[in-house]
Amino acid sequence: MTIHRRNFLKQGGLAAAGILTLRIPALAATQKPYQGVLQPTHNIPADKSIDAAWIKSLYERGETTVYRKSANELKFIGMPAGGLHAGTVYLGGDGRLWLWQVYNDPREGIDPKTVLWNDGKQEVKVRNRDGACYVEPAIAANKRVLDQGFALKIESGGQEWTKELKEDDWQEVTFEATYPVAVVRFKHNALPVEVEMFAGGVFVPLDADDSALPATVFDIRIKNISGKDVKVTLAGWLENGARKVSAKDGEGERRNQVVRGDGFITVQGSFAAADGSSNRPDDGYTAITLAGETGFANTNAQPWPVTSAYFSTHSEAPATGAPSGILNGGIATETKSLAPQASTSSRFLLSWHFNHPLEKLHGKLKDTEGGFFYAARFKDAAAVGSYLARHLDRLWGATLRWRDTWYNKSTLPHWFLERTFLNIGTLATANTYRFASGRFWSWEGVNACEGTCTHVWQYAQAMGRIFPSLERDTRQRTDLGIAMQPDGGIIFRAEFEGRPAIDGQAGTILRIWREHCMSADNKFLTQNWPAIRKATQFMLAQDKNGDGLTDTPMENTLDAIWEGEIAWIAGLCIAAARAAEKLAEDAGDKAFAKICREYADKGGRNMSQLFNGEYFIHRPNAAHGRSKLGSYNTCHIDQVYGQSWAFQAGLGRLWNKEETLSALRALWKYNFTMDVGPYIKTHTGGRPYAVAGEGGMVMNTNPKNEEKAYGDNVTWQLGYFHECMSGFEHQVASHMMAEGMTDEAMVLTRVIHDRHHAARRNPFNEIECSDHYARAMASYGTFITACGFDYHGPKGEIRFAPAIEQPVFSAPFTAAEGWGTYSQENQSGGSRTCELELGYGSLRLKTFKTGSAAAWKKVTVQLNGKTLKATLRQADGTSTVELADAVRVLEGQKLQIQFS
């Protein structure tokens, strides 16, 4: 199906809002043909002309982003609202679920389609992996696969109202975009009540198992805002979704039945096949559960639309229905009386169970044979609902506590917290799987580019910090196991490839260091050290001339094999060598640590050879010159990515600081624009991940207007150079933040945020090669550098040196065994108070580090009021507090550190 691009997408963006005045030069008249094509000149303005007041506003705490019915901002919203790796179930802008990509659909993307887009010269077909859902975002009303919802009966002063919790029935509906739990509010001037719906999946950082429940929680709170008593009854329903896609009349029947337990009631839907089979992708179960109170079930909920009669119709007898019909299971609460200003709440759980991993993965991916992880824990959807109902106070309580910790206890801007975190929702989509074996596995984007690709996933910083056990297992089981070749090369798509990618190899070593640091002890490192050493040796061996700059032609994330010495690849390998040095030290392998240190030192010195006086480049292979595609003397977005990674992992400075800053400034000058329209209109061939009127950082530009700038053989991959891919942009933003270019980092992150405003498209879906692209989880890295966070679990070390200066700074953190809030306050006289408050689990601590003030002479450390012995030392702009004995800070406790 071909759909034309909507006109409204031509509007949006900051420029269209009148905030900016851009001076964009026209194309030079002296263009020259290159391979028969008119060569476009570089046309990104050096002067960004950004309003200084607007930049200042980016640092303000502000308010949570709220999308509104009255502003027509709800139709594209699709927040992943289920558990990790349990398919894609979207929470819509009015609180109803949609999409339901839980049926193991092999089609690419969340809304498989092809659209037409004018690339500046002609209309071109855009597939899902090319940005179809960016150009034409999916609309909730068109993708409500299952009938689902809630209705409220209200009685007061002799009047009665029945309203569904949906956009059409209320004057105003608002959506508070705080992943993993959104708040949807319903208001109507003619009604005596207001409704708040807290909805999302169970999401508890560090608890990867219980965060993977195939279920959505609806915590619905009703308040009497009138001066009279009010009676309310709440009901929810869910269509039986078994064999929803494939069943035909005569093949069997859908069945609903009631399951009651201690403190909960469930209606589960299933399908009874006439031939007894249950092996289709959509064979399984759906269920709705009311937890924590008594209620009335109805296995065949009618009538529709909902009227007051619905609330008095109850039948717990098993019900059946033909495949061509709709069989709804519903549950209503008891009627509750509310005095003026009083509130009540009910918690409904919607769960699903479809244990049929994609057939197209069978054979190559052995783990599919055992089914999904959640199915190994639970026999059906009712069992999921039962488990969640029995543990709801603990699991939903921790989920809400995390939401409060992330959004409410921080002093960072709300919009910044939203954009840097929400991409982890990718883990709760059909982009990722976890099998019964425990193995984590992923595409790059939904159903596109298989194999948990190393050169993509190495950008994604979020999962390693929020669910480190999944990353550790993937390093050990897949990268150092299934994908490891005898020579140490790591096949970059494991079972789905046959060769390593050099950037993926280096990135995997860097992730191994991160995973070690996010561990409670050295067990992960010691178990895997021989394989880690071998993987590092393979990487070091790709420097054929021994100058510390990788020069072996190998695959990279831009899907080509480049010849020569390439700054971004060489830099990544230098960073990985430094990480391997640290790993070797912790493993007690001093000899190998020395080898890695010498490589990193030499490479760091020689990186200057790839600096052209303004930015880092790609030095051609002497034998082949520029015969093949490459970035050469152009300005490439990843040119100092290795240093960016080093700041993520606490590895320090790798090469010349001033040259690195110059490179970042060049990216800002030559690649960043507040309106990509003029650039993509003249530099065609790229995919529309940012369109006219929107800001972004272009992947690769030719600021010197060189002829044949990208080599003699311009292959299809050249199209990548003209795009804005958010994962790459996020890694640059995180690097800029770490280097003190905070304004640039904030602006770059904000334009990505604005590109995904709900008036334009789904705020929760950053697209590259298909939907919910894994690389976009690089956004979490900008949060890491904003906090100046570093952590080494086995050593009990933690560091905070905020890049965003505030008199009082507060932000969340995660460690190996717990998470909580870090805060610091600068006081008169130059003293500072720092505090670590544990919201979950525990934190083992021996060493605390922060940015120093030379005048500090004394430190006092207290844990819950008890003074601990500690020493203070200062060096290289860092104050280090060393405790005499390691302590364990427990959930609910506070550790305070006073510098004076």
Automatic annotation (TrEMBL):
Keywords: Hydrolase, Signal. Residues 78-394 form the Glycosyl-hydrolase family 116 N-terminal domain. The keyword Signal applies. Residues 1-28 form the signal peptide. SUPFAM superfamilies: Six-hairpin glycosidases. Residues 503-779 form the Glycosyl-hydrolase family 116 catalytic region domain. It holds the Pfam family Glyco_hydr_116N. GO terms for molecular function: hydrolase activity. InterPro entries: 6-hairpin_glycosidase_sf, 6hp_glycosidase-like_sf, GH116_catalytic, GH116_N, Non-lysos_glucosylceramidase, TAT_signal. This is GH116 family glycosyl hydrolase.
